Amino acid sequence: MDAVQKPADEGLPSENLGEGPSTTPSDGPEFVISVKFGPEKYSDKWAFHSGAALEDILLQAQMSWPEYDWKMSKIMIEKRVPGFKSLLKSPDDDKVDISPLDGNSIRLMAPKSDTQKRLQEARTAALSIDAARRAAMGAVPRIRQSRGRTQEDNAYTFHTIRPLSYLPNPERSRQFLEKLKADPGIKASMRKHKFSVGLLTEMDPSQYTESNHEGTTRILGLNRNQGEVIELRLRTDAYDGYRDYKTIRKTLCHELAHNVHGPHDRNFWDLCHQIEREVHEADWKSGGRSVGDEEYRPVIDDTHEDAGGWVGGSYTLGGSSQSTAGLSRREILARAAESRWRNMNDANKDGGDQGRGQGSGGGSSA
């Protein structure tokens, strides 16, 4: 299309006026747009006849710089025009009337044709390699299975993780809870039994520790309202260390069983032991390395009072009427196991302990 230059005697600075296309040689008055094209360090003014469209700018650009792909170009308007887009794209806006841009400045943007070609060739090659790899590894079925697994993991999980912010180093407790949530055995068991827990949080040891002349009793976990909230004792009594990971994970198995059964009866213990086996099996499949098993070793020794074992179905530590002073760790654990067995038999006879504490709007199970 022929370019038209406004004569100098009509008020346009001819020394800085470039050539621009026009729709017809005498189609109305001319208007001027400042055109800039960074890659070529170009800046000049182009004149257009009334009724010119974006495609007229692109036509002139194609004639000036044919090595660029103007079908993939964009035009940025430097000064905002009311009711006019600030960024025009080809080919979507090729027919847009550009007369509102009279006196404005625009910036042309376009990729070089050879660059665009190389990018397309690289993209095609990458897709071919990826397709061949998927076919060789049989990845397509696994991807579909993984998507379904992801949906189940999102549904059957701990939807909120929350440490106690007023206790020392809450971020470490958060990491501990996150590792429990990500434990492969816990995830597999929650998917299988369709367990959904609203909140997994830590327990303040001082609120669930009772001492009297018979000894010290510690609750290791609580399940409120069948999965609304699960609390776990992560810390030692002195708040300066964390308990053994596998011990806490076993407590979590116990509390998950309370999502179905409240009393510690035969049905509860059957489900609890089933969950423990499922978690242990997943741990074995992963090479025996539980998430966080080494990172969260408790800061206690064999003579510390927290070194006692579980007692009964209520998952408490200590609680024995006999003193453990002077006993070795093995003797303490053996005594705890014997006491636990007696309490389990008692629970099977009378329906078991109904749990400790109360949750808001409902009961809680230990």
Automatic annotation (TrEMBL):
Residues 1-30, 338-366 are annotated as: Disordered. Residues 338-353 have a biased composition (Basic and acidic residues). Residues 354-366 have a biased composition (Gly residues). One of its GO terms (molecular function) is proteasome binding. This is WLM domain-containing protein. Residues 149-342 form the WLM domain. It comes from the Eukaryota. InterPro entries: WLM_dom (IPR013536).
